[in-house]
Design a protein that fits this description.
With about 475 residues, the protein is an all-alpha fold. The protein contains 22 helices and two strands. A hairpin with a 2-residue loop joins strand 1 and strand 2.
Length: about 475
């Protein structure tokens, strides 16, 4: 079991280092945007990228996941999946560009911003070109190659944002131009992977790919609706400035999102490959336990210190512009929502192994319904806090539904007793700090005390304690070894 967990951890670390490094470079843009874009302009940027994220699901329609599931027939699956995506993407791009003023008007951006629809369509097309090559790298365990391309693309994006916005003064269009160039760079860097197109296009294989992928489309739309629909709804119910403040503080939850994202990158190949082993279910249960313990500790740390980080002043300039501080209170809730999303990702294993993608559909549509209803009900009285609560409730509903449906297909003995104990400990440590807002020193003490409490409360099994002690001893040996 520990060997399998180590393998998952190793690939998560590689994917994670690339994702964390790249996203942290991207995170640098958040304070940059808050100082060079007024909240109203940043609200427009947030709304457009919310639409891009939503339309990405339409452009990809689950074909990357289907390709991974049918990877055993790679020589036929790769060219078939790529050709299908190329055709549909070109059609969708033409439809967007041909009626750009209409789409800009109905989206709430205004007909005067129709040029942003052109940017969005081009970005969507280029991102779709890379989706199958990236999936292929994951299934071939080419994590370093995957990481290199992703990181290079983000570095280009960050650099061009600075050049276009600060030095060329192109305004909010800078964000879209930089993203367009970085997407094109990623497509060019993945050109060697496209050699797999030399394989044979196969219509029966394509039918199998579509049969698996298309049921994922509504599910993907529902899942993305949970993640991004709050911005467009807020755009209609409030104003662009409110959307900008909300987006800036929502993005401060990036650190929890990164953990969930890097875990997910390694998790899906991990459980697919091990699904037929006799000890697979206990391994999956242990993964959830350790994921939650680590996630709860991370939630405490980020919730305690993120406000201090945002207000940090360097050479008289705050990390986040004071115009955006009014939304800092939503950050712990956003972090908790991302952690629930990680639990949902864990619960997907039994459903995907059993090929019951309809369960994902019903769960995500339920989550989307909660998101839409919650945003319309909670934003008018509570503003951005209502939007944050809607996201949290949506992920909670999705996780609960997937768990109860999945256990009927592939029972996993999740360790709910230990999970409840960890959640109770995190609540006991976190509530006083978040309510009373003590100084940094006391926050640090409480944060460091949490893993000690997990240890002392007996939430770790004896073999896990032994593994931790062996690892600590090995680390101490490395530090004291002669050089």
């Amino acid at each position: 079991m520990f060997k399998d967990l180590k393998a998952l951890g190793k690939e998560s670390l590689i994917y994670g280092l690339s994702t964390v490094g790249a996203r942290l470079l991207n995170f640098i843009l958040l304070p940059f945007y808050t100082h060079y874009l007024v909240p109203a302009d940043y609200g427009v940027v947030a709304a457009v990228f919310s639409y891009i994220a939503f339309l990405n699901i339409v452009y990809h329609y689950g074909m990357d996941q289907s390709y991974m599931r049918h990877y055993a027939d790679r020589e036929k699956a790769f060219p078939s999946a790529f050709a299908c995506l190329a055709g549909t993407s070109l059609l969708l791009t033409v439809l967007l560009c041909a009626a750009a003023p209409f789409w800009a008007e109905v989206s709430g951006l205004g007909a005067g911003n129709s040029r942003l629809v052109w940017y969005a369509a081009a970005i969507l097309l280029l991102d779709t070109v890379t989706i199958i090559p990236f999936a292929d790298l994951r299934m071939r365990h080419r994590a370093l190659r995957f990481a290199g391309v992703r990181t290079a693309s983000i570095v280009i994006n960050v650099a061009l944002n600075v050049v276009f916005l600060r030095y060329m003064g192109l305004g909010l269009e800078s964000v879209f131009l930089a993203n367009l160039v970085s997407s094109a760079a990623a497509a060019l860097l993945l050109a060697p992977e496209l050699r797999a197109l030399a394989g044979k296009f196969d219509l029966p294989v394509l039918r199998q790919l579509l049969a698996f992928a298309l049921p994922l489309l509504p599910a993907g739309l529902g899942s993305m609706a949970v993640q991004v629909l709050d911005r467009p709804i807020m755009l209609h119910l409030a104003d662009t400035a409110s959307v900008g403040v909300y987006q800036a503080n929502y993005r401060l939850g990036i650190f929890m999102m990164l953990v969930v994202s890097m875990f997910d990158q390694a998790w899906r190949p991990f459980f697919i490959e091990r699904s037929h082993r006799p000890d697979a279910a206990p391994v999956f249960a242990r993964v959830l336990t350790w994921f939650c313990f680590g996630g709860l500790w991370l939630w405490l740390g980020l919730s305690f210190f993120i406000g201090d980080l945002a207000r940090l002043s360097v050479a008289g300039v705050n990390l986040i512009h004071p115009d955006y501080w009014s939304g800092l209170g939503i950050v712990p809730l956003v972090l908790a929502a991302y952690l629930l999303n990680g639990v949902y990702v864990n619960f997907l294993a039994p459903v995907i192994i059993a090929k019951r993608t309809g369960v994902i559909l019903s769960a995500t549509l339920a989550g989307a319904a909660v998101s839409v209803a919650g945003n319309f009900a909670l934003i008018p009285p509570f503003g951005m806090y209502g939007a944050a609560w809607a996201v949290f409730l949506s992920y909670l509903v999705m996780a609960v539904l997937v768990y109860f449906r999945g256990r009927a297909f592939y029972p996993v003995p999740y360790e709910f007793g230990r999970l409840t104990g960890g959640l109770a400990a995190a609540a006991a440590f976190g509530a006083p700090v978040l309510l009373l807002s003590p100084g940094l020193a006391l926050k640090a003490v409480v944060f460091l005390a949490f893993p000690a409490a997990v240890w002392r409360l007996g939430l770790l099994r004896p073999e896990e304690k032994e593994a931790v002690l062996r690892r600590l001893a090995a680390l101490r040996g490395q530090k004291t070894a002669p050089r």
